[in-house]
Structure formats: C-alpha cells, structure tokens
Please model this.
Amino acid sequence: STLQLAKLTAKLTILLPIHQQSFALSGPLAIESLNLQGIAINHFSTLLDMKGPVLSFQQSQADLLGGHYQGSSQMDFSATIPAFSVKQYFTAIQIQPLIHLLDPALNIAGTATIEANFTSSGTDLTAFKKNLDADVKVFVKDGVLYGLDAGHWLNNAMVQNASALASTPFGDLSVTLTIQNGVVSNQDLLLKNPQLRIHGHGTVDLVRQHYDYHLLIQPARTTKRFGGIPLWVTGNFGKPIIQLDTQALVQQVITKPEVHKDLRQRVEHLVHKLDLNKLFGN
Model:
C-alpha cells in the first residue's frame, strides 16, 4: 500500500533503541522537531509497535501551537486500502492554524481544547476525507470569529458577504461535531460574549467543500418578544456567503406573535421584496 496525506519534514535527533524480532517492531521513538502542513511540532514522543502490517503509536505526545498534544493511533496496511483510527486530545492550543488547514477563509482565533476520535481509510487526501468518520468536541476561549460582525446583524439585517474586516470577539465557544463519510454535522454550536449569543447548527461537506450552516444571533438578555436574527452560511470553501435566513425569520413571525414590533416590520419589508415561490420551493 502507498499513502500520501500531507507534506512532512522532520529532524530526527533522538531515536531510542528499538527491538526487532521477525516481522515485529516495537520501542520508544522520539523526534525533536518536525513540520506537518506548515505546523511546527516539537518534542514528539511515542511508543511504536508494529506487528506485520499493523502499525500503532501509543502514549504519543508533543508540543505544538502553543499547547500540548496527547493521543494514540493505529494504521492497518493489510488491505489494498490502508485504514486508520486515531484518538487525539489537544490542550491550550491556538486553533487558528488548524482551522486554516480546513479552509483559509474560515477564520477563528482563540485558545482551544479539542478531543477527537476518528477513523478513515484511503491512499490520498480526497479518499481520506470521503471515508472520514469522527466525533469531535471543541471548546475555545478568549477568541475572535472573523468575517462576521454579529453586533451589526442584530441592528441591521442586511445581506452581506463574509469580510475579513468584520469580526466578533467572544469569551467562550463550544461545539460538538459528528463526521460521517466526510460530512460534518453539528447541532449545538454556542458562542458567548457579554453582548450576545450565537447558536449554530448545520453541515459542512469536506469532500464537496461546501457550507450549509445556520446561525441565530440573540442579545445576551433575550426575551420572548425577540427571537433573534437568523443567518444562513452557504457557498464553497474559500468563498463563504453570509446572508439573512429569510425562511427562518418568516417562521419566527408566523409562530411567535409576541415577536418585537420592529422585527415584524423588518420582516414585512423583506417579504415584499421576495419571490415567495422561490422561497418555499414552489
């Protein structure tokens, strides 16, 4: 089997004695520094074990992105298509470089804790993404969401494209992700700052590189009279588009008669400009 998933350069400064017997290979391995997809990784150490076509790394740890990594992984090369299983735990890392590996236009900064368990198979990055299944938990503190000015949206429900000049600082961001066949699903994104809350749910297709994600921006002190501003994030990687989610906004007015008068008037103004046949798919 052959495999090419990423560009990798390394300086192997320490290689502790490895025991070799027949087709077995085991022992501790240490790498002083390496660079993976532009991310510097230092003081990597692991317990390597290879039995036939199965290679595993246990008790792995390293310093990277200002924080620390711990994990384990297994690679099975017994079939034509190699298979992988990985458990990872990152603490106090700067998340922005990891986000940029997914999509340079998706820009979130902050200090993150990440727990991820995933399996996949493939001989190249495209196949790896298509076959990717995972459960991921992310918590980010003291960060900034670039490309979206949530305060602006609370006051002006206007269609806009993602802009590098727009940003929303936050104290906490938490999200649980499920990945099946390369499609990321999420139902519980929550971003908090003193002025507002952002709730999110939707999907991100890693293979087609496409967004279909919904956000709801609410004041920190929300009331029943104000349901919040719903947004829809769509478009492809590199060119995400943020626009008012008109269907969700109309639904608020239909189902919540107590919606604030100003919001109702804004919706009525927008509805007059919409082609309702297109809006509801008729």
